[in-house]
Design a protein that fits this description.
Number of helices: 8
Radius of gyration: 16 Å
CATH architecture: 3-Layer(aba) Sandwich
Largest sheet: 5 strands, parallel
Structural class: alpha/beta
Order of helices and strands: EHEHHEHHEHHEH
CATH superfamily: P-loop containing nucleotide triphosphate hydrolases
Number of strands: 5
Shape: globular
CATH class: Alpha Beta
């Protein structure tokens, strides 16, 4: 039996990483083989591209270069990791996938969505998630969580995290519009509560797949 492909989406500080890990553990407890991955990343080449995308010392990528780098990392991940795992019956859980491209580079950066769809379909070879969990928090909550994380880890926000409130408001609106357009695939979960409260909603959203 072919595996299931589940992706998590949302703005900065929405709590994806915590819920991704909990889902992996819960699915494994039910006896599923689970592969956890992230975007950009998941392969050696894709992780190198991740470093380029976060590097802002001298020559940060322009909007179009940023898009193409994300798509190159995704193409490598789909071809070498995700598709083989799904074909082997493994459940794949990914921290971000195509919807982030439409939200960040489309709604956020203003690149044309029709071009993004064509380019993304080429990079993904038509692969689409079975279920996408959208963790939604407002911009104020997102900013507060980012500041808390930076203080706890003694790190600074990366280039995309440092984009202004208007940018983050646009990408949030983009995520919500996509969810409204594809309610059978994208489940929107209000994620301002505690991790346990959010987890209960996440686990319930997987009922149709289990």
């Amino acid at each position: 039996m072919k595996g299931r492909f589940i992706t998590f989406e949302g703005g900065e500080g929405c709590g994806k990483s915590t819920q991704v890990r909990r889902l992996k553990e819960a699915l494994e407890a039910e006896g599923h083989e689970v592969l956890l991955t992230r975007e950009p990343g998941g392969t050696r080449l894709s992780e190198l591209i991740r470093g380029l995308l976060k590097d802002e010392r001298e020559d940060p990528p322009c909007d179009r270069a940023e898009l193409l780098l994300f798509l190159a990392a995704r193409a490598q991940l789909v071809r070498n990791v995700i598709r083989p795992a799904l074909d082997a019956g493994t459940w794949v859980v990914s921290d971000r996938f195509s919807d982030s491209t439409f939200a960040y580079q489309g709604y956020g950066r203003g690149l044309p969505l029709d071009v993004l769809r064509l380019a993304n379909d080429f990079a993904c070879e038509g692969l689409r998630p079975d279920l996408t969990v959208l963790l939604d928090v407002d911009t104020e909550t997102s900013r507060a969580r980012l500041r808390k994380r930076e203080a706890a880890t003694n790190t600074t926000a990366d280039r995309i995290e440092q984009a202004g409130d208007a940018f983050h408001a646009r990408l949030r609106q983009g995520f919500l519009e996509m969810a409204a357009q594809e309610p059978n695939r994208i489940v929107t979960i209000e994620a301002s509560g505690t991790p346990d409260e959010v987890w209960e909603k996440v686990w319930k959203s997987l009922t149709p797949l289990r």
